[in-house]
Amino acid sequence: MLKVGVLGSGHLGKIHLRLLKASKKYKLVGFFDPDKETAENVSKEFGYKNFKSFNNLIHEVDVIDIVTPTLAHFDVAKQCIEAGKHIFIEKPITNTVAEAEQLIDLAKKHQVKGQVGHVERFNPAFRAALPSFNNPMFIETHRLAEFNPRGTDVPVVLDLMIHDIDAILSVVKSPVKHINASGVSVISDTPDIANARIQFENGCVANLTASRISLKNMRKSRFFQKDAYVSVDFLEKKTEVVRMKDAPKQPGDFDMILQNAEGVKKQIYFENPEIDENNAILDELETFADAINNNTTPIVSLEQGTEALRVAKQIINAFDN
Question: Where is the GFO/IDH/MocA-like oxidoreductase domain positioned along the sequence (predicted)?
Answer without folding.
Answer: 148-216
